[in-house]
Amino acid sequence: MTAAITALPAPGLRDHRDELAALLVDVVAGGSSLGFLAGLDHAGAAAWWDSLLPAVEDGSLALWVSRADDGRLDGTVSWYRESKPNGRHRAELRKLMVHPAARGRGTARALLAEAEAAAARAGVLLLFLDTETGSAAERVYRSAGWTEAGTIPDYATGPDGRLHPTTLYYKRPRGAAG
Prior knowledge:
Helix content: 25-40%
Largest sheet: 7 strands, mixed
Distance between the termini: 35 Å
CATH superfamily: Gcn5-related N-acetyltransferase (GNAT)
Radius of gyration: 15 Å
Order of helices and strands: EHHHHEEEHEHEE
Structural class: alpha+beta
Oligomer: single chain
Number of helices: 6
Strand content: 25-35%
Number of domains: 1
CATH class: Alpha Beta
C-alpha cells in the first residue's frame, strides 16, 4: 500500500535522484515501455532524471513520487505544461511508473489522481498522454476515465527492441475551469 504521495520540487529531485534512477531501471527491466530499452543502467537513468531539472526548476514539469509504508520510493508521475501561447491550457502526463513489486496496490491510480487534481488546481483544462497499446497502463487510464483518441502503429521501440503501437488518451481534470 502506498503511504504517501508528495510533490517533488527541484531540490528533492536532486536529493532523490539515485532512488529515482533505481526505480526507472527496475521498471524498464520489468518490461514497461517508458522510452528506454532493456539494459538501461543506473548511470543512464540518473542522467535522464538530471535532464529534467531545468523543467522542474522553471515549473513547466510537475513531479510526484509515492512511497510505500516502509519509506521505499515505489512510483512516480509527472506532467509537462505546454509553454507555447496556444497550448498553455494543456499538459502532457508523462512517465507514470510503479515498481514491479508494488503493482496491484492502487499506487498508479493514486499517483494519477494526484496529478489530475494538481492539474485542475493549476488551471490545466486538458491532460493528454500516450501509452503502449494493450499495456497494463492502458487499463489504468481507461478505468480512471481517460478517453481514447486513437492509435498510432509502430510508434515506439519497447524495451524488448520490437516496435509497438501507442494509444493516445485525454482527460479534462475535474474542477478545471473552462
